[in-house]
Amino acid sequence: MTSSDRFDSYERLRFERREHGVLLMTLSNPGKLNATDGTMHAELARVFRDIDADPSVRVVVVTGEGKAFSAGGDLDWIGRQINDHAQTMFVMKEAGDIVRTMIDCEKPIVSAINGVAVGAGLAVALMADISIIDEAARFTDGHIRLGVAAGDHAVAIWPLLCGMAKAKYYLMTADFIDGREAERIGLVSKAVPADEVLADALAIAERLALGPQDATRLTKKALNHWLRQALPAFEASLAYEMLNFLGPDSAEGHTALLEKRSPNFDGLTGG
Question: Where are the domains of the chain?
Answer without folding.
Answer: 5-259
